[in-house]
Design a protein that fits this description.
The protein is mostly helical. Helix content is about 80%, strand content about 0%.
Amino acid sequence: MKEKEFELFKEMEDAAESGSKGDFIKFGIVIVFMIVVLVLSYTSMGELPTNAFLVIAALFGAYMAMNIGANDVANNVGPAVGSKALTMGGAILIAGIFEASGAFIAGGDVVGTIKKGIIDIGAFGGNSDAFIWAMMAALLAAGLWLNVATKFGAPVSTTHAIVGGVMGAGIAAGGFAIVSWGTMGKIAASWVISPVLGGIIAAIFLFSIKKTMVFKDDKVTAGKFWVPVYVAIMTWAFTTYLTLKGLKKVWPDIVDLLVFLPDEKKPSFVIAAILGLILAVIVYIFVNKSVARRQNLTNDRQSINTLFTLPLIFAAALLSFAHGANDVANAIGPLAAISDAVATGGISSKASIPLWVMAVGAIGIVVGLALYGPKLIKTVGSEITELDQMRAFSIAMAAAITVIIASQLGLPVSSTHIAIGGIFGVGFLREYLQDHAEVIKLEEEEKKLEKEENKLEQYRDNLQELLDLPEEKKDKKVYKEIGKLYELTEHEEAILEQERTIVDSIQRKRYVKRDAFKKIIAAWVITVPIAAILSAAVYFMIRGMML
């Protein structure tokens, strides 16, 4: 027995040592990255007296970028990993390549210094120092909140985190009047709009897939007909989505290259949709021929799932590219603003992005993803609801189509909330489609469980009352009653154990894990206010040190 205990202790010790080595290596890589950022930022501005602000801000920006990689990127690849279309290593590799590519290729040359225009820069009165402090505070506060959220396994919106950071620092610097409350109202609306739209669209696609293929007697024939159609729809959606969101910053260069396109500063929905349709037709022809040649398919759900594996990998890559193109601004927007303020001594609503600033954002996202991303990828992929390829495909479709619909209607949406809403949508659809008798049975068993728990509590109270009697009052009748209560208590405990087993077995059929659902919703609601409070505190701390 002692030898087994010693072996168990040794295994635990080895596991702890291995874990500490891994943490040490990760920390070392972060330190190296931070040193590189420090050198880049210091050498970029020479001997300017305000260069120290830029160096510190660059470190805050790098920290923010790493936290974006650790938290936000999981939404793009988590469903693919959860469905086993991609391994964890493959997902990190693909996401890393396409996140960086999206940032460098389509991240743009100019970025808005104030995310979403939520505060009025005129309120700073040309005081560039106060503006720089506010942007530094926003970066650090947003990064800190994302770090905490990642630690607790809660996927949150990095856009909302930086919005909260900018708002909090702005209020601290210029009062509540500095905030555009109309814009903040739209952002608050996105807390509801994004997940609801994402969930509805994902559920519609999953139900459509089930009706057209899974519920059919001849699944193979149905799959060979419908899978190319769904992949073509996905191609249209993602081409339109990428054109509108991922390529808008480099659209003038594309127009110069492809002279037949209308000479516009950014792509219109019509042009994006036409490009998507052309590519969708090409992909449909290719996929239709490829699926028709498949000979090893069996008439079951798993075979249908395998047909969605490759499209899912492409979806993860394209979502990562679009995310890198758009959300890198959450890290480098305030940093570019600080760089511009340091260089010019003024405050601008738009700022050019030096290459080194873009590199800090792009590489920081990849570093954060590679080192700390797996935790949230697992949460998104498997800890909310069980995913397979067709469910993950429905979530990817929801991510693209929701953004297209919202952009045309002028609705504010969050890509994080859309993706998680899509996961909730497919999970709740699975619950809805299950036998309703199971739901009724669960309610009945829970009532029985509560009744038995009350009986056990009563037996224990009665037994304790008799045991507490003085010895002179305990006669044969009392001892007999004590013995009977012991028997009743043991019998009731056995009944309760059986009831709990039954309830647990039924509850496991609840396909959306309620604890994860509540935790994520709570994190979404508090992201903006928490980031704002942290940012205001950091701003006052910086100002206190400088004045």
